[in-house]
Design goal:
Shape: globular
Structural class: alpha+beta
Number of helices: 17
Helix content: 10-25%
CATH class of the largest domain: Alpha Beta
CATH topology of the largest domain: TIM Barrel
Strand order of the largest sheet: 3-4-14-11-10-6-7-26
Radius of gyration: 26 Å
């Protein structure tokens, strides 16, 4: 059976020829508001590249697009038949044109990380220097998203609206194949086009089926598009099989026990001290990184307990101790990296089952932690490879046997699709790895582990929605999940002039069940980041990565001497206050989350739905639990603010982490959070 059977239909000889389909009545009906076209890219046998458009099609490549009118727009399906000799490498379409833009109010909502709002249309017409925009001939400017599925494009839909009305283009693709979007804008006409781009390899004699591309017009804002996408998503995905504990964890202490230079910071016998530090912060989980012979980012994918840290028995006893102290435990494994030439796995399998570029070279990554050690080559595995799958499954089983509650496959929620030209991997050549087969890769592991232990879960770093069926808990990174994200959000929502804005509401509203940490690679977290994390319903992250981090955790002493460490922690956080003050606030907020777990941890994030709010310089978000709801308010200004939450009835209680109960009309202090709880869900 052809590996591409789920994507490509039978050979042309069995299905005949078909011409481009254009429904004249459909196009005429929507022409006043928008129009559409398409283009595709062909790699010719001589190596040249040709762009084919709907205005000037080719006889040897037949495109059939079928638009169907819906209640709120159009759905497009179709097929491409490659009757020629070249390789079709991308299809852009349907390109939705003629979308109105209000320079002052419009935003382009892009699921980069947990969300991003592009708001630089006025800057484009004035200075034409907004970041990420590219100038195109004819006065047009183009903004390109990352590629789905990856951290750079975490859902396959985008929206353009001014808060009153707008449009969304979403690709409803159960296969999670590789794709991206572009926004093309003409300042002189204030019109835009949204361009979905499908990354494909359609060989001569093959037919490719276009997943449904849905164009949606709406009155209101992006929330409407999010609800529509989620309604479709629920028809093809289910992720309600995870154990309850994954919803109740409020965050983790990430600890690198042994580093890339094989320096040991936390032997297995010291796990009690890790539990002490996690207790002082109120954190429920501990992630054990660098727990192996090679240390962190070294000798992957060989993971064996380290005799110098105490050996396997000591590791098992240490994990038992952490669990006895009430901590969930996650063990680390990298989901894609192989240390080139340094392991038995590499010599037996890796060298033949790595991603291969078109030029025959490996896809190499470097993670250089110390300037005085080699910069190791790390080759990416091809996820189609059976030996790689077998190794990853064996690591999950080993983590369970060691007593852990979870395994983290690092980077699989980060990396985007790669074109692999390797032979013998189980895919056609070429094919995109880290796309639709990643869904099956992790689902098979998750299913096996559910059968073995229903309480054991899979984690990964980053986020994208194609693997939410398999991943119960996520390690955040990048857009909307970092300390920089917190600063950018505060700046922009205080009224600062930015070309864009961190917009964590985009993913959190679409997937309110999402349990993800933020990312702060520093041994303590400051007050703004703690507040940012709880208000958007995320989980805390504190990291002990290097020797001086242990000194800080145990004594509170700050040193800026990290020796030959390439990337040091955020010293501004470490110096923002005494350790007792910073840890004390995180502990107070952690206790607050646990006391209100039904709302703040297990509740459903519904953003601004169902209530009205006034409070100068404040952000307010709504969570719904099984027996009631709550609105959490954060004052991001520098002055006390009068706060009023309306539309949900009389609050059952009004509390703050540090002061407990307060009167509802008490001004909210700067950089302080407050929870208004309501007994009934009133909408």
């Amino acid at each position: 059976m052809d590996t591409r059977e789920s994507i490509f239909s039978m050979k042309l000889g069995a299905c005949g020829r078909f011409a481009a389909v254009v429904m004249a009545c459909a196009v005429a009906e929507c022409a006043s508001a928008m129009s559409w076209e398409w283009r595709l890219t062909v790699e010719e046998p001589d190596g040249s590249v040709t762009v084919v458009t709907s205005e000037v099609p080719r006889d040897d490549i037949e495109v059939a697009l079928e638009p169907v009118k819906t209640a709120d727009g159009w759905d497009f399906t179709g097929r491409i038949a490659n009757n020629g000799k070249g390789l079709v490498t991308s299809f852009e379409g349907p390109i939705i044109k003629g979308l109105p833009v209000d320079k002052a109010r419009s935003g382009f909502y892009e699921p980069r990380g947990l969300g991003w709002r592009v708001s630089s249309f006025a800057q484009m017409s004035d200075s034409r220097d907004a970041p990420k925009w590219k100038s195109v001939a004819g006065g047009e400017f183009t903004y390109e998203t990352g590629v789905y599925p990856s951290l750079k494009l975490t859902m396959p839909w985008v929206a353009l609206d001014d808060g009153i009305s707008g449009a969304s283009v979403m690709v409803l693709d159960a296969r999670a194949s590789a794709k991206s979007f572009s926004l093309c804008y003409r300042p002189e006409s204030d019109k835009a086009a949204i361009v979905p781009k499908h990354l494909v390899f359609i060989a001569p004699g093959q037919i490719w089926k276009l997943p449904t591309v849905s164009y949606v017009r709406y009155q209101g804002d992006w929330h409407i598009a999010a609800r529509k996408y989620r309604a479709w998503y629920d028809t093809v995905h289910k992720f309600d099989t995870f154990p309850t504990w994954t919803k109740q964890v409020n965050g983790w202490l990430l600890v690198i026990l042994k580093q890339q230079n094989e320096g040991i910071f936390w032997p297995y016998g010291d796990f009690g001290k890790l539990a002490d530090y996690a207790d002082s912060l109120g954190l429920d989980m501990i992630g054990l990184f660098g727990w192996t012979v090679g240390g962190h980012d070294h000798l992957y994918p060989d993971y064996e307990p380290c005799p110098k840290m105490g050996g396997r028995d000591a590791l098992v006893e240490g994990i038992k101790l952490l669990k006895k102290r009430g901590k969930r435990v996650c063990l680390y494994a990298n989901g894609q990296l192989q240390h080139v030439g340094a392991t038995r796995y590499w010599n037996e399998y890796g060298k033949d089952h790595s991603l291969i570029r078109k030029d025959g070279e490996l896809v190499i990554k470097h993670y250089h932690k110390y300037s005085d050690i080699p910069n190791y080559d790390q080759a990416l595995a091809c996820l189609y490879s059976k030996p790689w799958f077998d190794r990853m499954l064996s690591l999950a089983r080993n983590a369970k046997d060691l007593g852990a509650d979870a395994i983290l496959y690092d980077q699989l929620g980060v990396s985007g699709p790669y074109a692999c030209y390797g032979k013998g991997h189980g895919h056609c050549v070429p094919a995109y790895s880290y796309a639709d087969e990643r869904v099956r890769f992790l689902a098979r592991i998750a299913d096996e582990m559910r059968k073995a232990d229903g309480d054991f879960v899979i984690m990964t770093e980053g986020y994208h929605d194609s693997i939410m069926d398999s991943v119960a808990f996520w390690h955040g990174i990048s857009c909307c999940a970092s300390r920089d994200s917190c600063d950018l959000l505060i700046k922009s929502r205080r009224g600062g002039r930015n070309p864009g804005d961190e917009w964590p509401e985009l993913v959190r509203y679409t997937f309110p069940e999402l349990a993800t940490t933020v990312r702060v690679p520093t041994p303590i977290v400051d007050r703004p980041m703690v507040n940012y994390t709880i208000v958007f319903g995320m989980r805390h992250d504190v990291e002990l990565r290097y020797g001086p981090d242990r000194i800080y955790a145990e004594t509170g002493n700050v040193t800026t001497n990290y020796g030959t460490v390439v990337k040091v922690p955020n010293f501004a956080i470490l110096k923002s206050g005494p350790k007792e003050t910073l840890a004390g606030y995180m502990k107070a907020v952690s206790d607050f989350q646990h006391a209100n777990s039904d709302i703040l941890l297990e509740g459903r994030f519904v953003d601004t739905d169902g209530f009205t709010f006034t409070g100068k310089g404040c952000i307010a978000k709504h969570f719904i639990g099984e027996k009631g709801s709550g609105v959490i308010v954060w004052n991001i200004s520098t002055e006390p603010s009068a706060v009023n939450v309306d539309g949900l009835g009389k609050p059952q209680s009004v509390t703050e982490p540090e002061t407990g109960a307060v009167a509802p009309d008490t001004p909210l202090a700067p950089d302080t959070i407050r929870l208004y709880r309501f007994a009934d869900i009133a909408f």
